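User: Sequence in, structure out. Go.
Assistant: Echoing your sequence, followed by the structure tokens.
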Amino acid sequence: MLVAGVDVGSTQTKGVVIDDDRRILGRGITDTGARLAEAGDAAFRLALEGAGVARDDVDFVIGTGYGRFRVEFGDAQVTEISCHARGAAHLFPRTRTVLDVGGQDTKAIKVGKGGEVLDFCMNDKCSAGTGRFLSAASDALEIPLGELGALALTARNPVNVTTTCTVFAESEILGWLARGRRTEDVVMGVHQAIAARSFSLLARVGVEPELTFTGGVARNQAMVALIGELTDLRVNASEDTHYCGAVGAALYALDRLLVGAPAAGEGSALR
């Protein structure tokens, strides 16, 4: 028995295929772009290739994320909040708090023992304090996004970035450089601003160990280190935590096959 989850995020789309032993057999990732349906299809196809199976071998597919209703080949949809909680608890069973920092929003989620959502809050009115802010820094500094975290960790005297608004990010970053501040100190200042915004969301739901960091920004080692310092906790982060939404969706798909009950958050308007 095989199932799949497809997480159509604002920046990247992820897909996973799992079996009835809940093992991840294949993963796929692609940039979302403007064509959400095509991105979902591409990520699913890559996950199938990774698993070495055909579409007809997959018994149930659930879509999640920003563009979950555009997963046209999916059998159902579940909110990304439910899926990130479920996926995090699967990868790290002692998870009680989840921080999901994506391209356009940030979510703090309190999780129960079974991966159920107990409480959450999110920053979704603008892209302040999200991966979009890091992208703005990357563009302003002409440094690849994947290199920012390592560079930030070399900082000695981080600047105090006062805005987390993406609109004003470039002018403040360039302003610090014009004053002669070192690039790595400016980059760490950007990371610290995002971490502070993320921590404020975590504080609202209450931070309990274990804390699992999900979303694309979880791959940034400086962000993982800063969240650990602010919470005084060891932060769970791995390559698979980037796929947490898709993993959770696949697990809900397996529930549907094994139990037949609708998944938590299925079809909901919640983001």
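User: And one key feature?
Assistant: The longest strand covers residues 12-19.
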